[in-house]
Description:
The complex is a heterotrimer of chains A (about 350), B (about 400) and C (about 300).
Chain A (H helix, E strand, L loop, with lengths): L5 E12 L2 E13 L4 E5 L6 H9 L6 E10 L2 E2 L5 H7 L4 E4 L3 H4 L6 H12 L4 H14 L5 H4 L9 H13 L5 E5 L7 H18 L2 E6 L2 H7 L2 E6 L2 E7 H6 L4 H8 L40 H5 L5 E2 L5 E2 L22
Parallel strand pairs in A: 3-8, 3-9, 6-7, 7-8
Antiparallel strand pairs in A: 1-2, 1-4, 4-5, 9-10, 10-12, 11-12
Chain B lengths: L28 H11 L1 H23 L17 E8 L5 E7 L4 E5 L5 E5 L3 E3 L4 E6 L2 E6 L4 E4 L9 E4 L14 H37 L1 H16 L2 H12 L3 H9 L4 H16 L1 H8 L4 H37 L11 H10 L9 H25 L6
Chain C lengths: L1 H27 L14 H10 L6 H13 L14 H36 L4 H15 L2 H15 L15 H27 L2 H8 L4 H38 L5 H10 L3 H29 L1 H9 L1
Helix pairs in contact in C: 1-3, 1-11, 4-5, 4-7, 4-9, 4-10, 4-11, 5-7, 6-7, 6-9, 7-9, 8-9, 9-10, 9-11, 10-11, 11-12
Amino acid sequence: MSTPLLSVDDLSTSFFTSRGEVKAVRGVSFELRAGEILGIVGESGSGKSITCMSLLGLLRSSGRVIEGRALFEGRDLLTLDEDALSALRGNDISMIFQDPMTSLNPTLTVGEQVIETILRHRKVSRAEARARAVELFELVRIPSAAKRLKSYPHEFSGGMRQRVMIAIALACDPKLLIADEPTTALDVTIQRQILALLKELQSRLGMAVILITHDLGVIAETADRVLVMYGGMVMEEGPVRQLFAKPSHPYTRGLLASIPDLRDDTHHRLTPIPGSPPDMLRPPKGCPFAPRCPHAMAQCNAALPPLYDAGEAHRARCWLHHPEAPRVAGITTELVPA
Amino acid sequence: MTHIAPQMWAPAVRDSAAAEVIAAPSLTFWQDVRKRLWANKPAMLGLGFIILLVLAAIFGPMVSRHTYFEQNLKLSNVPPLFQTYEVTDSAGATTRFFFNSGNLNLYEVTPSGEVAGLLRPAKKDLIKKQQQFKFGYHEVLLDTAKQQLSFADGTALAPTGWQWNMSNVLGTDQLGRDVLARQLYGARISLTVAFVATLVNFFIGVFYGGLAGYLGGKADTIMMRIVEVISTIPLTLYVILIMVVFNSGFLSVVLAIGSVYWVDMARIVRGQILTLKQQDYVAAARTMGASTPRILIRHLLPNSVGPILVTLTMLIPSAIFIESFMSFIGLGVTPPEASWGTLTSEAVETLRAYPYQLFFPAAAISLTMFAFNFLGDGLRDALDPRLRT
Amino acid sequence: MTAYVVQRLLLMLVTLFAIITLTFFLMHAVPGGPFTSEKMLQPEIQAALNAKYHLDDPLWLQYLNYLKGVLSFDLGPSFKYAGMSVNEIIAEGLPVTMKTGALALICVVALGVPLGIVAALNRNRWPDTLVMVIATIGVAVPSYVIATVALYVFALRLGWVPTFGLDDWRGYFLPVFALSGFWISFIARLARSSLLETLQQDYMITARAKGLKRGTVLIKHGLRNSLIPVVTVLGPVVANLLTGSFVIEQIFALPGIGRHFVLSITNRDYTAIMGITIFYAAVLMVMIFIVDMLYLVLDPRIKYRADAK
């Protein structure tokens, strides 16, 4: 197997606020191969966005990477200085954000916002950059592309703005695109269009994608592999089919139970997960999900479970996979102890 | 694989509420505001100063030994702090006095530090610019050009020490009025003008803005266009014009300032009412049959209090400032009444000879501005929901 | 675009008209009329004066005549300076007021904005603290206090600058400093908070995520947006520099319009008060119009909103 495009190892990020250290990301590791779509799913505050912001050095001033490595094509992103990192951003790795309404500068034309990205990373003339911008607008299917370059963001609808964001992100043919909840702020019909566009562009351009979302439905449709995060940690990780077929963590099971399945014609009730995420100022000593877990055991509060291998690159962080643990139907029975 | 004790596999003991508990104690909005305001030291310092000032303005003139208008021309321009000299005459009686370099007079001082009165020179020599004072057989010469005191034999008189003025703690002004008494009275006038004018603005603004916001539609458009026109007019000019029409005096100042600066308030109140009209909970209250006044009082007002309070706190210092500005150019309260503005402008008249006289009114008004600014900033920060933690 | 310009222009004219009307009727509401301070004029002299200045005409006719005068840029004769028109009074004081005012405005923009930017970029470090302490003092201490203290220290005590007049170029220092002190502080505070707010915006992260250089992110994306609120207050700043000149010109004995205005107030020279007020208002309207146009250039959203109406 080839070396991964990106390999993140034991990443920890904290925010230092007046109330103390908020441990937003705690020891996250994952790998991403070229051309692969990795979905990261979790509730708000689970650390999924912070993980990606840490990689690109885009944390707000109070945030700091505490430890870890993130090798991208052999270079550790976390030790690069700002100059080297900014040469990488928008070029090899680009990012699109949740809210297209606020992510574009309101006082510059959208064309300028695309062109300036091209001019930053490519040695081309302004006219060439312009031509490339028109090309990109056509690529993301903005109608009458050449004319629309002169428009301002407020003259676009939300979906169109997200297309502009995607055009900006694709400007320099990135090897990795990080999409941070790219559809959350959009209407449902637009959401589907944008997702379809992303998926199509990904297969056409062959880039790797990290898709951050809180919506398992989105993951099921787009991703190859999934990372389930909770309380700043990876709870479960695996190929999409595997993970959906055999969710091996009570939290993943909870997430799956809380989304409607339209293909399922048996009308069972949706089950929300009771409680709220842990306070990251004082993260619990044991499993962060234990207070909300239906299967919580004394051991769960006492110590953090390791990641257990469930086979086929499928891993889950739950004490139920310990060989001495009681068997719980749906989670452990099918599992071979690692 | 580490071995784990069997009892650890027992279901976790939990109290049912634990999962629902959010770690930070939840506070009501106003509790949170109060807490954050308390933690803001400059704002609290400002508030403390304002309270002290208000108390001083109310009770100060009552307990003061002097009144703000009582004049004593013989004791004009006496400083609060002076260097004393002592001369003992042949009979053994000691006279303590100080030299006021501003008006070239000698004043006798009692042992307790009170200013007893002016010492009359025995002889004045206008050509040599000398004055001669007699203490029994001793003669003291005052060289008014060099501002030096010496005995007849030429030996210089050495000062014996510093003395705080015990009869007029902050000295006297050019008409011999007690500066402290005038200062306290000035605070009373300035603060009254500011508070009353702010209150008048508040009522006009809330009424106008509330009406526009409540009526909505065409009426709102017209009323807001009028506000737009008014807000482009230089308001200081209008305060001046109104003062010209009504002549100077306390009431006209209040009227002039009070009738002009309500535009911001009207805008804020209208904005609040417009946004709140669309809020779900107001619709909910309406659906549940709450009457219009009830909605206004129970739902709209409490939510508008924050921005209104901040605007008010910021309006008071501007009112103080405008009043002092008016008084400074001679349009404020009329003498012998005093405000910080008139006190400053009086001090400016004597700036060359008695620069220290500027200190007290300037300090009073500046500190008050500081206090209100700090309090206003603190309030705004405390009320800003984006800064909630 | 044109819709917006026309709309602003109309608003300007309406406001100016309102100001002229309001000023006229306020001045004619003064009890007793313009010549009351000259005690006990002979009735026939009074009548002659009234006839000369058309004060015996009905009020509406006086108003129409005055309006006609203003429209042809004639503000009428001064009541107190025989043979002097209000136009002449203004023309005499204008150069002084314009010079100090323009210099003060330049100081406000050229010092206030950079100070605010330095403070915001060094948030919670010593440059920020220093700027904020100075700006807080500047906002709290009234201009006439700054002016008199500066006058005492630099002119009377140290003798670095003349105590009055503008014959020496150094004479500009103190008036301009006193006039602009408050607004430099105000703009510094505004620029600081505005830039801090802009730095928090999502599009700033986008700009960084695109790999733009630090300087580009800051200047092209940060400054331009954070200057919009600063530009909007420039209109009121000009207004306040003008009214501020009343006191400053008084303290430094500068023969500007502000001094003439205060003098005409003390003299109850009603036509002069009226004329100077209207002149001030007109200057101000023009300034606000210019600021509005500037705003239009800076913020494309305005154009859009105005045209959408």
